[in-house]
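fwd from M.: "can u put these together and see what the complex looks like"

so here's what she sent:
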Amino acid sequence: MDLIRLEDVLSQIETIPQVPGILVVYEVRGLYKPIDQQNIHDRTFCECICNRYQCSDKEDPCSGHA
Amino acid sequence: MYHVVPDIFVEKRQDGKFLIFSPMMGKVSLVNAEVLISFKSSCQSNFKGSSAEQTSLFLQLGLISNSEIAMPNYTLPPFQPTEVVLFPTNECNARCIYCYGNTGEIEVRNLDFGVAKQSIDFIVSNALIKGAKEFSTGFHGGGEPTYNWELLVNSVMYAKELAKKTGLHSTTSIGTNGILGEKRIEWIIENINMVTLSFDGPEDIQNKNRPLVNGGASFPYVSHTARRLIDAGTDVTIRATITSESVYRLEEIFDYFVSLGIKSMHFEPLSECGRCITTHQTSPEALTFVNNYFPLIQKAKDKGIDFGNSLGQLRGIKSSFCGASGDNFFVTPEGYITSCLEVSLLSDPRSSIFFYGKVNTDKDEMEIDEKKRTLLASRQVYNMPGCNDCYAKWSCAGECPAKAESAGMLFNVEPDYIRCQMQKIMVKKRLEQSVSGG
């Protein structure tokens, strides 16, 4: 099964009792910085042929691949 | 006041656990159903009845935020690039069986030095206006850039000369097939900062995929070039194309490059275009590629190797796949300005999309079609309806525009598109690995 939108999952669990049981978080991971902490600049070059994946702002590079 | 984070995706796993991916917050988690039930009831009450523990948990999972999320909204900057990639020629000393440039089958065009010089002048001028500290000159293209050796050397020397005059730092890069004589290798070591070497791996694969013009073996040349560059300490990255045949030998290919001392590799599945039509080379099947590729991610990590490709990268949010929708300034052998490395000829039907200007040496100006720039810049994932409900949307960002255009899907990629499938499988595997101690 693929990942689907949260809204669609929530709509499917309508019949589950409204009072929740114990909330369990098995694991949580940070993959990269949240969007409000990222510097999102224009990405230059080509992802497929030339892998010189670079950020156009070298002084303040994109946090996602800095 | 809490705000529900947009674009959250969930999978109910076979073990009954729920995998939650919040791309905007860069979070992936594994929870039980009760977490989602609790979240649903909290949403219904606008979080007014939620306990501090609940809201803290929702914040931790990236489900809510203390402030409203400002979604990406790309604004096309004025045309002032400080980087140029020159395509010196569309001729080549190899005849790769999947060549996207169809070298040897098209009229040879070589870039005029006047065009190259004017392009370098332009980026240097922009760097000075913008107060940047450096400018960058790259060499790539539908052909082998070293095949027009004189232009390559003259352009690099000119860039160096300008750097000296202006006090700016000049960086140079090249994408080459590595079929080079000793003197040229020496020159590259001395004068080029970053080298991307097109190299498909062990001898039989390399010789089959990337033969010389006369059909001869390219492996002895390319492996020699690789060794020389590595020994000299050049910043070199391998760019290997993976076909439906070589996909089963990914680990062997990887190990071979490791044995050469390579520290940076890029394994890209073949995209069926160019010469593939006559040689009948095919892309690897999506799941086969991913299943063979994925174990190498950890292996590369363990060995300190920079290993990647254009698929399923979880490096942060992006709204366009690459610089083709942005500020790419690539100059073709005919002097046209293209935003895509793959589209280098006017005869390519896709040039009507990706060619957005011309270097006019008569008038000493850049002729820029702003309408085309604006059209290209509008290709952002949030403008693509087919991507709306896809969990990979903020990492794939609408996939490669040139390949999508070839498939007739430039502005609306459909979910059954093979590259989409690869992107999704890769992202999902990365997410699963992230929450399983990977």
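replying to her w this: Helices of chain A lie at 6-12.
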